[in-house]
Amino acid sequence: MRLKTLPSEFQKALPILSKIKESGYDAYFVGGSVRDAILERPIHDVDIASSAYPEEIKKIFSRTVDVGIEHGTVLVLEEDEVYEITTFRTEEAYVDYRRPSQVHFVRSLKEDLKRRDFTVNAFALNNDSEVIDLFGGLQDLEKKTLRAVGDAKERFNEDALRIMRGLRFVSSLGFSIEEKTFSAMMANANLLEKISVERIFIELDKLLMAPFWRKGLEQLLSSDVYHFLPELKNSKESLQLMLDELTPSFQFETSEQAWANLVMCLQVKSIKSFLKKWKTSNEFQKSVENLLAVYQIRLERDISRQDVYRFGKSIINQVESLREAKGLSFNYDKVSELDGQLSIHDKREIVVNGSKLMTLYQLKPGPKLGKLLSDIERQIVAGHLDNTEKAILSFVERRLASE
Ligand code: ATP
Ligand code: MG
Hints:
Blueprint: H1 8-22, E1 27-30, H2 32-38, E2 47-50, H3 54-60, E3 64-68, E4 73-78, E5 81-87, E6 89-91, E7 103-105, H4 109-114, E8 124-125, E9 131-132, H5 137-142, E10 145-146, H6 152-158, H7 161-173, E11 176-177, H8 179-188, H9 197-209, H10 213-222, H11 236-245, H12 255-266, H13 271-277, H14 282-300, H15 305-311, H16 313-325, H17 332-341, H18 354-361, H19 367-382, H20 389-401
Parallel strand pairs: 2-5, 10-11
Antiparallel strand pairs: 1-2, 1-8, 3-4, 4-5, 6-7, 8-9
């Protein structure tokens, strides 16, 4: 099969293929971008695979960066773009179920495509826009089927992360999983306990953020794979709530929103320890906590101007959209209105700072000054005090005089 129109990202990268070929080696576009090009979906990261060894690639191009030479990957910088060029390789048995113990560079495209996870991810595209399909991937694309390359049991046993990747592709492509592939996922799911949590997080997160997330989540549930993910063992009913509570067309807008909803459905006692198990960043944890705090506030009362100041418009709107998806009352206009009333969005915007007050009024650092500053901030946010030097200093003088 030949692509009718070659996406511009590939066109731009054609000279790279030509250069490698002129030096006597093979080179192809490979990976998800070929799949997406066939599906006429937008493509990202153009990956190139070549029979040239890393050292040979480095001789062909003048600007290269070593990023993972032992795995065969060299970055090539051409025309303001960065391309990942990876030598055709095979992978040896995965001793610890995490990473291949050794990769072997090979000169054969077929060997390289064989190691790839799913037939729809195992295409190569040559410089004539011809798709090389050695494992029936085109037929699987047609049937919207996700099928492991080769013996599914072996493939998931080699690398259990592929199980999560599979579920994530269900979610991004809306495909169904072929029967043998599905049962092999189930049979090897326990091996996920050996995979790094960070990598599993990335896949579950992508699953939740993708257009067919409901389908992905349903498959996660019906495969029983969730039992082997951090903190999700025996959580079928809670996870099912994610599907039942939200209106079918709902798409999560941010990862924080998705994970906050997950935490809520699970009725997690400590968000902190839950997200620690998932090894997320402190910043991510904080946003999830804030989202849940706002969600709680909204169960009790309306949003105030102070809330908008404290949590920010974005977090609050994400709560409003969750409420909308759950059939609860929501009011984006109110959030915008309150946000518009704020004369500051951050205390650093206050025109008089602590050191200025210390100099002007011979104050010392400590609780008294801290209280004064936070009172100024609160009064400005409430709209009772203008954020001007004159107004703030007269507020401070009145305060000091009354002590
Ligand atoms: P996306 O569109 O999300 O980037 P992708 O298919 O490009 O999806 P990547 O993680 O970018 O996925 O990997 C690029 C390619 O490398 C895949 O298409 C697949 O051929 C191969 N690959 C990646 N991870 C694995 C794995 N764990 N096992 C086997 N092959 C893999
Ligand atoms: Mg990719």
